[in-house]
Design brief:
Low-confidence stretches: 4-9
Helix content: 10-25%
Mean pLDDT: 91
Structural class: alpha/beta
Number of helices: 6
């Protein structure tokens, strides 16, 4: 909600005016992006540079153009603490877009370099052990997980219980643009969880209802969650490109890698991301 000041004439006919503050109810369009890297100490593997920032800025610009009177929030969230705090302090969230790395069980927001205030405490990203596997350590800090106990020495499982569903509208829409957050397609085109055993010894999971996107939708208990779903082992997400192979962010969308690969990754601007997204929650 926002406050606006109006001037109301004295009903007695006098020329005096009074100030009146009226609360105007507005919906919130929230856009979050993580770091381009998976880990501040590993800048070569899957590092997208500033691409998440640029595509998030494009989405925020589109939201402002389409809904100019609403509340628009764009934030960099390289840690789970900031992710939860930012969401929970909003109200009437109509749309949430999240641009970051991901996998079947979570988001990797990447962590950060340099000093940053996290939960009211200054932390130095250059001295944090970002691979520390203890609960609330560096690895935990840069990730949002639904099975934390599988990846860390932790008693915590589903971190999404920290999200307050009350800040979302009944018809809220959530869009996850990272890799495999909603699962994959099998070679036959069936929606599954994952079709390979590549995640730290975690066995292959075929049920897409065990995905992060499904758990997020269940936590909200309202609206819908959308996630890009590609085909095969390399079903991650990529940025759209023009005919020369330059990344283009203007429409705020990304695509499954296999779909972009069908066109040699170039000239993909005309493809609509919604055609390659799955909607959650998936019903039994």
């Amino acid at each position: 909600m926002s406050n606006k000041t109006f001037y109301i004439a004295d009903v007695s006919g006098n020329s005096n005016f009074q100030n009146a503050t009226l609360q105007v109810v507005t919906d919130t369009y929230l856009t979050i992006y993580g770091s381009g890297f998976l880990n501040p100490n590993e800048l070569t593997h899957y590092n997208t540079g500033d691409a998440f920032k640029e595509v998030a800025e494009a989405r925020n610009k589109i939201n402002k153009k389409n809904f100019p009177t609403e509340n628009h929030v764009l934030e960099y969230c390289p840690t789970d603490t900031e992710f939860f705090n930012l969401i929970n302090k909003q109200s009437r969230v109509k749309r949430l877009d999240v641009y970051c790395h991901g996998w079947l069980h979570g988001l990797n927001l990447g962590g950060f370099k340099g000093k940053r205030i996290i939960g009211g405490v200054e932390k130095d990203g250059d001295i944090i052990d970002w691979e520390d596997r203890v609960q609330d350590g560096g690895r935990d800090l840069r990730r949002v997980e639904i099975h934390e106990n599988l990846y860390l020495t932790s008693v915590e499982t589903n971190e999404l219980t920290k999200i307050s569903s009350s800040v979302f509208k009944a018809n809220a829409e959530v869009y996850f643009w990272g890799c495999n957050i909603g699962g994959q397609l099998s070679r036959k085109g069936n929606h599954i969880g994952q079709n390979e055993s590549v995640r730290e010894g975690i066995p292959s999971i075929l049920d897409p209802k065990k995905s992060f996107a499904q758990f997020f939708a269940n936590q909200l208990g309202k609206g819908f969650v959308y996630a890009l779903v590609g085909k095969g082992v390399h079903a991650g997400s990529v940025f759209k490109q023009d005919v020369k192979g330059k990344n283009i962010y203007a429409d705020g969308e990304m695509l499954p890698a296999n779909i972009a690969a069908n066109k040699g990754y170039k000239n993909t601007l005309h493809l609509k991301a919604i055609n390659y997204m799955k909607k959650f929650p998936i019903k039994p």
